[in-house]
Amino acid sequence: MADRKKLDVPTRMWSLFETVREGAEYFAAHPENRQIRADVTAGLQALYAHLEGDGRIGESGSSQREDDAAAMFRLLVEQLNSGHAWDEGCAGQLAKGGASLAEALSLRISETIRTDDYLSREQAEPLFGFCAAAPRTCKAIYQLIFELCGKAAVSMPQESFDWTIRALEEQPGLLGGKNSPHPNYAYQPAPQRVFERCPICGGAGIPYYRALAYRMNHFEYPHLPAKLWMQCGGCGNLYTWKYPEELLTQADHPALVQPDASRALTATRPANASMLSIWSAILNKLRGYTPGKDLLEVGIGEGCLLAVALEMGYKPDAVEIVRQSAQEVADILQIPIWNGDFLDYHPEKRYSVIVMGDVIEHVTDPERALRNAHSLLADDGVLWLSTPNFAGGFTRMLKFRDAMWKEPYHISYFNFDGLRILAEKCGFTVREYQASIRYNGSMELILTKV
What we know:
The protein is of the alpha/beta class. It folds into 3 domains: 149 residues, no CATH class; 57 residues; 195 residues, 3-Layer(aba) Sandwich (Rossmann fold), CATH 3.40.50.150. Helix content is 44%, strand content 17%. Strand 7, helix 10 and strand 8 form a beta-alpha-beta unit. Helix 4 runs parallel beside helix 6 and helix 5 runs antiparallel to helix 6.
């Protein structure tokens, strides 16, 4: 853990500089005030003495900036001791010295916290204060901001999220570059829907964790590069604070996507034998609950479940919110697929099997989704559902290193009890539970009507 004393030194140094700067501004307006002249001189002496003495802040990259700042502060002391009036030249020298000092302090703090996984609020709060006060005129201060936001993602998630976005608003290209997962990335703001209340139960939430969604390979605009997870004080489940409005309205014009018959022999995609086998085993298990063959898949992924369902004699229907995915799978399997939001899917038909594989975490109203599934399920039918479990064994082992936290497309996360309570509220009972082998960190439930 970062040495608190090592963190205190640079923040105290900056606090002293701020005091000197305020005193210098007052001195410029009241040049006859001998006491303020003496105070400013003493403050500048303390700054350069510390920078030049045994209390040097850092080594390597920060040392040159420390020398620059010390030289500037020493020159100002000499001028004040000689009776020089505080003028615009002095103010400019102080500003240059302050910029060099800010860069040196930024490098030193980054060096001090780099080996820590996380910082406590007690450690992080004064460092955010430094970032707010220091001039953001160099690369080092922005490097510190991103380093700090990662280290304080648990102890100060709201501040870490806000500072990430603030830094990118000031410097949109900060996350780009040749060593970046997205080398050409430049931040662009996009309209976001703010979830003021929990989308699962309507309860009030508190900030839980800030994740850097930008690090996921499939991250793209209009997602924000950072994601703030909230924890509901009512149901205990998690939800994202902001989500792109554009993606929530992409299914405003639902339609049945028909397969392109001209592509019946040419529309293909790589087949994952292991995944096909897993889906086969799942359907065989569901046969123990119902002999019915009418099946609905909500969220089709790459079409593996639908392909196996056709192989095993089911009569599948499907709902997919992404138009391109619906058309691709429709062409490959030569079946129609309803393109739209499952919350708006209300056919007259009832299904023996409904499959919702890693879907419920994407919807804006999980309760409505489960109630819709309940209304579409035959009385002797079965619902198979999977979703990430933020308190599952996989995430307990990896904690916040689980990639789940950075997933840009997810809106809600459940633990088992949270999902069970919601399912029971919607008229289901949990018949089986297991940790998924399809997706790391997901839970898989078999549910039937009460």
